[in-house]
Design brief:
Number of domains: 1
Largest sheet: 7 strands, mixed
CATH class: Alpha Beta
Strand content: 15-25%
Strand order of the largest sheet: 4-5-6-7-8-3-9
Number of strands: 9
Order of helices and strands: HEEEHEHHEEEHEHEHH
Shape: globular
Radius of gyration: 17 Å
CATH architecture: 3-Layer(aba) Sandwich
Length: 213
C-alpha cells in the first residue's frame, strides 16, 4: 500500500504513525506503541541553563519558512525512518496546511528545527534536528509556547527518550493516549494564533527570570 496524504491523516487520527526501516527501503510500517510519549503542555521544563542560553543568544525562531530544509535536517542522519515516500507525503501535507515546521536560526544559518502534523487540537511531533548547542531544546521551548497559545490539547512525541524526559515528556498507556487523542480531535487549535508574533522574542516565550539573591 502506497502512502497518500489522506492515508497519513487517517492514520494519525486512528492513533498510529508510519515509519520506514531506513532511507533506502520502500516498506513502511504503521506503529501503535503500547506506551506513548506525550508532552503535558503545562509541564514543559525549561532549565535555568537553557533559559540563560536562549536569552544570551536571542535566536531568530520562525515557522514554515524552511519546511523542506527542516525535513532534510531530520532525515540527514546515519539511521533514519524518513524514506523518500514519507518525505514526499510530508511535503504534500505541508502544502495542504496540515504539516508545519519551526526553525531556529543563527544569523542566516538554520541550526535546528522540528516539524509535525496538526489535526484538530493535536500536534503530532514527527522529528527534530540540531546543528548547534541547545538548538533542538530551543525549538521545543518555542514550539510548546506556541502550542499553548494556539489552544492545543495534545502534543504527541511518539517515543520517550532521555532528552525528551529531561524536558518534561512522559509516557502514557495506549488507552490513555487514545482518550486524549479523541478529545483533541474533537477540538480546534491554531498553529499561528491571532496576535501571536511571527518571530517571538525570548521575553515572551521564557518564564520570568528568578530574582537574584
Amino acid at each position: 500500500m502506497h502512502l497518500t496524504p489522506d492515508l497519513l491523516l487517517r492514520g494519525y487520527a486512528a492513533g498510529v504513525f508510519p515509519m520506514a526501516e531506513g532511507r533506502e527501503t520502500s516498506e513502511i510500517h504503521w506503529i501503535d506503541p503500547q506506551r506513548r510519549a506525550v508532552f503535558p503542555l503545562a509541564g514543559f521544563h525549561v532549565s535555568r541553563s537553557l533559559a540563560r542560553h536562549i536569552r544570551r543568544t536571542r535566536p531568530r525562531v520562525t515557522i514554515d519558512r524552511a519546511f523542506d530544509d527542516v525535513l532534510r535536517g531530520c532525515a540527514d542522519r546515519s539511521e533514519t525512518w524518513i524514506n523518500a515516500e514519507i518525505f514526499a507525503n510530508n511535503q504534500a501535507l505541508h502544502r495542504q496546511g496540515h504539516a508545519h515546521s519551526l526553525e531556529v536560526w543563527h544569523e542566516d544559518r538554520l541550526v535546528g528545527g522540528v516539524y509535525g502534523v496538526v489535526l484538530g487540537a493535536a500536534f503530532f511531533g514527527e522529528s527534530m534536528f540540531s546543528r548547534a548547542t541547545n538548538a533542538s531544546k530551543t525549538a521545543l521551548t518555542y514550539l510548546v509556547h506556541r502550542l499553548r497559545a494556539g489552544g492545543f490539547r495534545l502534543f504527541d512525541v511518539q517515543f520517550l527518550t532521555d532528552h525528551l524526559a529531561s524536558l518534561g515528556a512522559v509516557e502514557v498507556s495506549r488507552a490513555t493516549y487514545r482518550a486524549e487523542l479523541a478529545r483533541a480531535l474533537a477540538d480546534q487549535a491554531s498553529f499561528a494564533p491571532s496576535g501571536y508574533p511571527p518571530e517571538p522574542a525570548p521575553e515572551l516565550v521564557l518564564p520570568a527570570p528568578e530574582p537574584s539573591v
